[in-house]
Amino acid sequence: MQLPSQLLENAVAEFAKLPGIGKKTALRLVLHLLKQEVDEVSHFGETISKMRKEVQFCKRCSNISDTQVCSICSNTTGRNQQLICVVENIRDVIAIESTQQYNGTYHVLGGIISPLDGVGPDQLNIETLISRVKEEETKELLFALNPNIQGDTTIYYIQRKLGQTNCKVTTIARGISFGGELEYADEMTLARSITNRLPIEQYVR
Amino acid sequence: MLQLQQISLVQFRNYIQQQFSFTEKVVGVCGLNGSGKTNLLDAIYYLGFTKSYFSRNDGQNVHHGMAGLRLQGQFLLNDEPHEIVSILRENNRKEFSLNGEEYKKFSEHIGRFPCVMIAPDDISMIIGGSEERRKFVDTILSQIDRNYLQHLIEYNKVLQQRNSLLKQAADQGNINEELLSVFNEQLSKNGEWIYAQRLFFMESFLVLVGQFYARIAGKDDQVFIVYESDLQKGKMLDLLLASRQKDSVLQRTTIGIHKDDLLIKMGESNFKNDASQGQRKSLLFALKLAEWQTLKTKKGFSPILLLDDVFEKLDEKRMHNLLKWVCTDDDGQVFITDTHPARLKQQLKEVGAGFQLIEL
User: Whole-angstrom Cα distance, residue A56 to residue A59?
Assistant: First the structure.
């Protein structure tokens, strides 16, 4: 792509580094910015760089935060601080928060154990989780990891690392999705749903 | 019963666009070398297994110089019509659908429209390495029980992870023991399950192979097959612990059901080394027909039998016995290829079943 300005080219190259953005989309975005007032664009740039500079990761749960300890971890009245939900990444925190059904805290692992992809337990926030459970005398650890082999590996590993503890270890339910149709559910899921069936009084709530 | 009534091939190997209708239970396909006999059989197999029998990647199945392919088959299964469509898009994305419903997981299709292929290269199953024999057994069991395929996939995934951990540990000089034992447990759980399935299956299957061999060969060569597995020596978890040192040194998992094999004996000697060409072929047919028979018993209907170039492999008398047996089966559909139309016609006439001849 031939561009009339080196400055323009640099900006396009930067945008094109973002996920899902190609050269042409990048150019469109840059040209859009060029049409705007200088102040507005400065504000845009500052917002981004301020975000990157000042956002912190909660030292307790690794969630995104504006302070050293995130708003969920510091909310001792509305949140059950002795319940920890273990998730793979921050996107999962956002997904669970949107349900408005969970009132405990989180622990973001930052990935999942998979030596094939070069991710071992040392690359993840597992040590901090173990010490957190021991120090805080956590009552329950709820695993909300993807239901696949690597997810299982990670759960078993952490459970093993925890050793003997009074902390209850649970995992999110696996089965037929809400609003789904039995006919089209795959057999594994359906079989599991039948094995782990629920008493109605627990279901209708 | 299962019957293929019509198939249409678009840009599949040497076919640009062609349609075939099958009206009879026995279909003879003849034509010169390179006219596409094997490709036609493979197209049928493809619709049953979502992939080619000859394990090339999908790009290689596309007609030379073109992009994308489409296979469509009309099947009759227990008097109900079914339509299977497989499309490979120009960008190499594959779609597979049954009656207009696209599969999310191709593995769900396996076993619903079973077929058994016998091709000349299959002889490697007898003289080649153990992998071919495991693949043979896995193909049968996956078609009978969908859980089997699921366990096998999981086993292989954990196996890769464990091997990867062993490699990294060798590079770094220390290993995460807890993670290794998690993998050991995950591997054993699936491994023990698969072993139990294989063991149970082999019991009746191997007897069946012996019976078929005797029938095809017309005599008792004292051929017998033994199922061999590491897990016969003990629980997989214990075996993994015992081979811990060896695994670390070799940087891979040295015991497990991924090492299973079928040992073929003839009398006291090893079949692989001592059997004649004819004996090897007879055994190949016995294995495949036992597969066909097993699937038939489990499914309640006969799988489609695809015989590629079989006349080159057996003498006339054996061939006649075999054809008579498979063609006069009450409900099975059989496809047979040959280069000589006259010979094929003659053989099929002698068998006495209704047949149809397609010349390419």
Answer: 8
pLDDT tens profile A39-72 = 999 999 999 999 999 999 999 999 999 999 999 9
Q: In chain B, where are the structural domains located?
A: 1-114+303-360, 117-300
A196 occurs within a structural domain? no
Q: Chain A window 171-200: which residues touch B at a Cβ cutoff of 8 Å?
A: 186-188, 191
CATH no. of B117-300: 1.20.1050.90
Decide if A132 is inside a domain.
Answer: yes
**CA of A41: how far to CAs of A24, A53, B152, in Å?**
20, 18, 55
Across the interface, of B157, B181, B185, the residue whose CB is closest to A149 is: B157
Q: Is B82 on the interface with A (CB under 8 A)?
A: no
pLDDT of residue A178: 79
CATH at A11: 1.10.8.420
Q: Give the three-state DSSP class for B28.
A: strand
pLDDT in tens, A69-106: 999 999 999 999 999 999 999 999 999 999 999 999 99
CB distance A200 to A174 below 8 Å: no
Nearest residue of chain B to residue A188 (CA atoms): B147
Nearest-Cα residue of chain A relative to residue B159: A116
**Identity of the residue in B164, B181, B186 whose CB atom sits nearest the CB atom of A115:** B164
Torsion on CA atoms B338, B342, B348, B353, rounded to nearest 10? 120
Note if the pTM is more than 0.90: no
Beta bridge partners of A56: A65
The pLDDT score that the predictor gives to residue B313 is: 63
Contacts of B164 in chain A (CB under 8 A): 115-116
Using 50, 70 and 90 to split pLDDT, how confident is the model at A204? low
B183 and chain A: CB distance < 8 Å anywhere? yes
Print the domain residue range for A168.
78-172
Q: What residues have CB less than 8 Å from B264, skipping those under 6 apart?
A: B126, B223, B224, B225, B270, B271, B272, B283
Is domain B1-114+303-360 given the CATH code 3.20.20.450 in the classification?
Answer: no
The total number of structural domains that make up chain A: 2
DSSP-derived pairing of the beta strands B80-88 and B94-98: antiparallel
CB contact under 8 A, A186 and B186: no
- Contact list in B for residue A160 (CB cut-off 8 A) is 178, 181-182
Residues A25 and A84 in one domain: no
B182 to chain A, any CB pair closer than 8 A? The answer is: yes
